[in-house]
Amino acid sequence: MRLTLLSLLFAVSAALASAPSRTVVERASCTLAPLGSGKDDSPQFLTAMQACSTVVIPTTSTLNISTRLNMTGLSNKHLNLQGTLRFNPNIPYWTANGFPFTFQTQITFWILGGTNIVVDGGGTLDGAGQAWYDAFASNSSLLRPITFTLFQATNVLVQNIKMINSPEWFNLVNEGKNVTFNNITLNAASTSSHGAANTDGWDIYRSDTVVISNSVINNGDDCVSFKPNSTNILVSNLNCTGSHGISVGSLGQFAGMFDIVENVTAINIRMSNAQNGARIKAWAGSGVGSGIVKNVTFMNFIESKVDNPVVIDQCYMTSASACAQFPSNTFIQDVFFTTISGTSTGSTVASLACSPGARCSNITVNNFTLSPPSGTAKYTCQNVNLTGNAASLFGTCTVT
Ligand SMILES: *[C@@H]1O[C@H](CO)[C@@H](O)[C@H](O)[C@H]1NC(C)=O
Ligand SMILES: *[C@@H]1O[C@H](CO)[C@@H](O)[C@H](O)[C@H]1NC(C)=O
Ligand SMILES: *[C@@H]1O[C@H](CO)[C@@H](O)[C@H](O)[C@H]1NC(C)=O
Ligand SMILES: *[C@@H]1O[C@H](CO)[C@@H](O)[C@H](O)[C@H]1NC(C)=O
Ligand SMILES: *[C@@H]1O[C@H](CO)[C@@H](O)[C@H](O)[C@H]1NC(C)=O
Ligand SMILES: *[C@@H]1O[C@H](CO)[C@@H](O)[C@H](O)[C@H]1NC(C)=O
Ligand SMILES: *[C@@H]1O[C@H](CO)[C@@H](O)[C@H](O)[C@H]1NC(C)=O
Ligand SMILES: *[C@@H]1O[C@H](CO)[C@@H](O)[C@H](O)[C@H]1NC(C)=O
Ligand SMILES: *[C@@H]1O[C@H](CO)[C@@H](O)[C@H](O)[C@H]1NC(C)=O
Ligand SMILES: *[C@@H]1O[C@H](CO)[C@@H](O)[C@H](O)[C@H]1NC(C)=O
Ligand SMILES: *[C@@H]1O[C@H](CO)[C@@H](O)[C@H](O)[C@H]1NC(C)=O
Ligand SMILES: *[C@@H]1O[C@H](CO)[C@@H](O)[C@H](O)[C@H]1NC(C)=O
Question: Matching InterPro entries, A to Z (predicted)?
Answer without folding.
Answer: Glyco_hydro_28 (IPR000743), PbH1 (IPR006626), Pectin_lyas_fold (IPR012334), Pectin_lyase_fold/virulence (IPR011050)
